[in-house]
Amino acid sequence: MKLSIPRACGSWSKSPPVSTTLHKPISFYSSIPSSSPLKPQVPLFLRPPIHSATLSDLQKWHHWAKTLPVPHSDDPPDPTLLRRELKWLLEDALEVHSSVPQMGSHSDDRPIKLRTSLEQLYSVWRQRIEERRPFQYVVGCEHWRDLVLSVQDGVLIPRPETEVFVDLVGDVVTQNGDLTQGLWADLGTGSGAIAIGIGRILGPRGRVIATDLSPVAVSVASFNVQRYSLQDIIEIRQGSWFEPLKDVEGKLSGLVSNPPYIPSDHISGLQPEVGWHEPRLALDGGVDGIDALLHLCNGAASMLKPGGFFIFETNGEKQCKFLVDYMENESKGNFYDVKIVPDFAGIQRFVTGFHH
Amino acid sequence: MAAQSLWRLFLRVPSSSPSLTAVATARRKFGMSCRMSFSSENSSSGSGSREFLGLSDEQLMKQCEMSTFKSSGPGGQHRNKRESAVRLKHLPTGIIAQAVEDRSQHKNRASALARLRTLLALKVRNSIDLDTYSPPLELLQILPAKSTIRTSDCGPQIGPNNPKFALGMLALLDLIFAVEGSISDAAKLMGLSTGALSRLVLSDDSLRMAVNELRTSKGLKPLK
């Protein structure tokens, strides 16, 4: 495989092309003045149960939702997964989930307390099926490891594959206790998933700085950090990659990132839930998908302290091999113990290593 | 592996067993085979699933190889919620437990581990020396009151809905395996009539299926 290395790497520290070219204003917040902090949406399961519906009306909705026809698509949603999502939607929407023991049994006028109106339930499920809106945006959260993280439009939904970051960091700090007390950085944090997972491993003496260019991501990550009471350990900063980290250059014990890595011309062919709804800023990695990863590799050498550890998530085998080769040749002498780690589906997914 | 000689393994997963429904679904969905590897039969020592079931989750997890389902495509950022399904292979026995229904991979791992414990109880037999056999308390507790070996300190009979039933079931299966599936032989040792033991076996689906699978493999008629 031939990957073109952008030769303009050196100039990226000022203005990475990924960020500037792809950072389009997102409609629903572009009208808000940039100085006012964004108010994150509250996930469905955390909203007060101020609505209600009769059991029979809820059953009607449930039947409608189960049988709503899925528009034709080359990549239709899996019916088994949709049924599971419907169950999860009810779990989040009902105050007491066990209050609907037999969906589909005969009529019943018992009122059921809901965290959203019945009209909204019709509307959001229509969006799920007809607009292929991701289920996680519908309920405003994603279950990730043992965390329940708030997500909303404009923030990448954390993937199951990425759960491995936390295990990898756990292994490294077990073998090397000094790294627990150091400063870690999660670049392009999105919902804050990796930063929160790591923050909980490091414990009270650890510190994590999580950055993101997107103001929505910054607001959602801050919400999630506070929900897990980690604000003393995790600091969220807005900005592009290393830009908000100038004060900690050469001081990082760890650097982790799940940057955009999908090649630009693959974006239009993505699953509708991803391509139509998730932020391009978090997905598009340039022509070969490797722009942001190379930028991170180049920055890692100056940001990490000696012995500092890094993990980057990649698109798969090609990018992993390319990065390892890049670190061993172009960036010779900066890193050691550079390894490729597969995800649980057996795909070469992560590159890890240490700074000399 | 030396320890393998200690276990008798039951080879096939009964695909209709209620506790295994999710596994069977996953198998259909992912087109995966769920065959178990097996070890030789040898009953030289009283070790087996009891030993595994005594392990902490963490210790048991260390004996497992974990994977998600290999699905086509690149995964990662490309997919919304690629299956967070988890598949655990218990390396010492080859038993595979899976979970797909939870919302995070982490929770599916916990569910798969719980399922593995059930499978270990059902599939991995503890060997018994019939000459010196004395039934453990957990077995006595699931027997009906009319059993002549039951003593008054056993308390009332524990039924299939009680979580403690599983341990008793494990011990009963060990015994039925030791007598090669003969309900009348096992009934004598339990101080019960053949009919009464038969009713006990039939009272729980997974117990019934495990016993019937053994009986079929020995050329005996399944209990109905």
Task: Walk me through the structure.
The complex is a heterodimer of chains A (356) and B (224). Chain A is 35% helix and 18% strand. Chain A is built from 13 helices and eleven strands. In chain A, the strands form three sheets. Chain A has a seven-stranded mixed β-sheet with strand order 7-6-5-8-9-11-10, with helices on both faces. Chain A has a two-stranded antiparallel ribbon with strand order 1-2. Chain A has a two-stranded antiparallel ribbon with strand order 3-4. In chain A, strand 6 (207-212), helix 10 (215-227) and strand 7 form a beta-alpha-beta unit. In chain A, helix 3 runs parallel beside helix 5 (118-130) and helix 7 (164-175) packs parallel to helix 9. Mean pLDDT of chain A is 88; it is low at 1-35. Chain B is mainly α and 224 residues long. In chain B, strand 3 and strand 4 form a beta hairpin. In chain B, helix 6 runs parallel beside helix 9 and helix 7 (183-190) crosses helix 8. The longest helix of chain B has 19 residues, at 105-123. The model of chain B is unreliable at 1-46 (pLDDT under 50). The chains are: A alpha/beta (356), B mainly alpha (224). At the A-B interface, helix 4 and strand 3 of A face helix 4 of B. Chain B: Belongs to the prokaryotic/mitochondrial release factor family.
List the helices and strands and how they pair.
The complex is a heterodimer of chains A (356) and B (224).
Chain A: H1 17-22, H2 27-30, E1 51-54, H3 55-67, H4 79-93, E2 111-114, H5 118-130, H6 135-139, E3 141-144, E4 147-150, H7 164-175, H8 178-181, E5 183-187, H9 193-202, E6 207-212, H10 215-227, E7 234-238, E8 252-257, H11 272-275, H12 291-303, E9 304-313, H13 317-328, E10 335-342, E11 348-355
Parallel strand pairs in A: 5-6, 5-8, 6-7, 8-9
Antiparallel strand pairs in A: 1-2, 3-4, 9-11, 10-11
Helix pairs in contact in A: 3-5, 7-9
Chain B: E1 8-9, H1 21-30, H2 49-53, H3 57-62, E2 64-67, E3 86-90, E4 95-99, H4 105-123, E5 124-125, H5 137-142, H6 165-178, H7 183-190, H8 194-202, H9 205-217
Antiparallel strand pairs in B: 1-5, 2-3, 3-4
